[in-house]
Fold this protein.
Amino acid sequence: MAASILAAISALTVFLFVLYLLSKGVLKEKYAVLWLVVSGVAFFFSIFPGALKWISDSIGVSIPSNLVFFVTLVVLVLVNVQLSFELSRHEARIRRLAEETALLNERLRRLEEPDDTI
């Protein structure tokens, strides 16, 4: 019972922390949704641990905590892949913006040069 209470308190803490970050504008909505869902699911299974046992039995996992660790690992790998995709996309955009800025600076420098052809 103490583990369920600790899990419920932890899930609520994460949920409230994500809401706090969201309200301060530190965390974007598209990332917050994932963490709110994860903390909500964790809270559900902490309140109804029998549901986790039933799911584990249904899919043939002998120990429910093994299922939790496996699902957690899969979720974290998917988050890492998604963040790597976002990072790669932003790096490409930053590179393109830097190149455009360099070209504009060069054009501006040429326009501001005194014309010696007169």
Notes: Residues 1-47 form one domain. The chain has two domains: 1-47, 62-113.
